Amino acid sequence: MHLICKFVFPSVYARQSHTNWLRIVKTNQVLRMAVDQNNVSKILSVLSHPLRREILLILSEKSECSFTDLLNGLKVDTGKLSFHLRTLSAFMEQTPTGKYKLSKTGESAVRVISDVES
Predict the structure, then answer these.
(1) Deepest in the core among 57, 78, 96, 109, taking most CB within 10 A?
(2) How far is the C-alpha of 117 from the C-alpha of 82, rounded, in Å?
């Protein structure tokens, strides 16, 4: 926003001191860094559970799986699988037929998991 305002209303920023401009930029960087760290923490929390990692790896190998395929492959009860699938919602999407597949974020997560485990 500040960058847009600087170009649209340059006279307003010309009247402000250089120190104030740097303070605004530094504040935005700190906020952005805090948001990024919060997102990283959430992602790592989701990926910390072995069953969720296994779900992502299965979807990576098989491309698409139904709920029943995952249920039979993982040998867990429906409640547990439903909970973990909801937790992984940012990493997966459902096809028109209702099967689960990795989203772009999920594909990236699988690469991270593979890199860490190797």
Answers:
(1) 109
(2) 25
Count structural domains, the chain: 2
More confident residue, 60 or 39: 60
| Prediction pTM value | 0.67
CB atoms within 10 A of CB 94: 13
**CA distance from start to end of the chain:** 42
Residue 95: domain span: 49-117
The one-letter amino acid at 109: A
Distance, in Å, from the CA atom of 19 to the CA atom of 51, rounded to the nearest integer, reads 51
Q: Please tell me whether residues 16 and 29 are part of one structural domain.
A: yes
Question: Tens digits of per-residue pLDDT, 51-105?
Answer: 999 999 999 999 899 999 999 999 999 999 999 999 999 899 999 999 999 998 8
C-beta of residue 55 within 8 angstroms of C-beta of residue 85: yes
